[in-house]
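Exercise (ungraded).
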Amino acid sequence: QKEVEQNSGPLSVPEGAIASLNCTYSDRGSQSFFWYRQYSGKSPELIMFIYSNGDKEDGRFTAQLNKASQYVSLLIRDSQPSDSATYLCAVNMEGDNYGQNFVFGPGTRLSVLP
Amino acid sequence: DAGVTQSPTHLIKTRGQQVTLRCSPKSGHDTVSWYQQALGQGPQFIFQYYEEEERQRGNFPDRFSGHQFPNYSSELNVNALLLGDSALYLCASSSTGTLNTEAFFGQGTRLTVV
């Protein structure tokens, strides 16, 4: 059974700090990895995806992937109170970059304190 | 473009009853996936529909069934409701053959079983 694990929260950081969110996955054949943000009572929204080993930056967000260690992380620089949400790590189930079904981790709740 | 729409938004049912949830995919999308998200957990994949057939299924009992219509909209049916079926039910739509960064979630249906 494919599993995705995330560091337990809640994670609290002061405004302006870097928030670091971690995720590990069990299926070595996984090829595509996603970070979703979910505000309370709302649906998940995609904020980052990564297919290749290394870092991928998008504004204040950086995703890091290490397939050998089966590890994905998300860094949020200059954290803002509006970043307070649950962050879901998701891995595509189908071992390619086209499969549309995901295994999600349990999520890490982030709280950015003003 | 209305995006992915789900109905109803909230629903309260009694244990043992049956429920039908509905999803209209984003314009141009032909594939619908359903997820169950219990409180404090990540979404769990239920099944996916494409070309009016169930293409993949997660680890859910037969009480959970679905349907896809020629216009690509979809229904999720749950029979013999249990208290543990209380959750946020999410629909995600996508287009077969496109990169999996293009899956979009609806706002969800909050089902409460009493």
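Further reading is listed at the end of the chapter. For now, observe: The radius of gyration of chain A is 13 Å. The mean pLDDT of chain A is 93.
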